[in-house]
């Protein structure tokens, strides 16, 4: 730590370290306070089929900070992972998602909610215990819950990851591989795991239809994934051209700003109800 640099550089280095340590301490106490004060809230982003009908939602956390407003997870998830808060946050979001499933159950029992689970949390025994407790406390069909994990987790911890996935599947809960294509896993490896869903990362979608190579990569991923019986979801769909491309390539579901940004969780049921009314209206308006 004690760098033997020139006098001033040495001082500056220490001052910088001290400032950083101070920032981290400050952030840590803010996160702790935020967790105590329930400043973290659940947002839901619709996942739709190729006809634009909502099939499920992805749970996305937002930090509703009293002074700084809504803060996106990219700004605090890495800090939470390194400071050891991520389990608490993920469990909180998981339970909030169970509550939503319960709310949706009477009229929308087919809706699936997908929850992101950090790799540092996923392989902990305490996570499986908490998941089990939630399944007891909120008696919904476990098939309506999906856990999103990243490829990196699987690659770094193959045997452990495989074991946890098997246990979760035995509980009846679905598994999705998130951000597919950005890591090093292959479809041939995934086909040996009881994975239900593959989410193609936004990087392969964002330059469609301009990028020929991204169109080729995406269509190959979709084709092979369907051959292996995965449900395929494209993330980050922002345009009609992208949707049409996905439709032409028989992708199952899409998620992105073209359909909806993440919404506050209490709005999900309202959205589903109005979608149903619109559907009824178009059905009756259609001439024979
Ligand atoms: P992710 O799981 O890949 O989630 C998709 C991200 O893409 C979300 O960002 C979503 O808001 C964003 N997105 C969706 N549609 C579009 C689009 O059309 N265009 C663009 N540009 N972006 C779109 P968000 O909400 O900022 O979350 C970022 C990441 O933080 C997530 O990536 C996920 O890895 C992580 N995350 C979010 N919530 C949780 C959580 O509760 N627990 C854990 N462990 N991680 C979480
Ligand atoms: Mg995700
Ligand atoms: Mg993703
Ligand atoms: Mg992503």
Automatic annotation (TrEMBL):
Residues 24-276 form the EAL domain. It comes from the Bacteria. This is EAL domain-containing protein. It comes from Pseudomaricurvus hydrocarbonicus. The lineage of its organism: Bacteria, Pseudomonadati, Pseudomonadota, Gammaproteobacteria, Cellvibrionales. The chain holds residues 314 to 601 of 601 of the full protein.
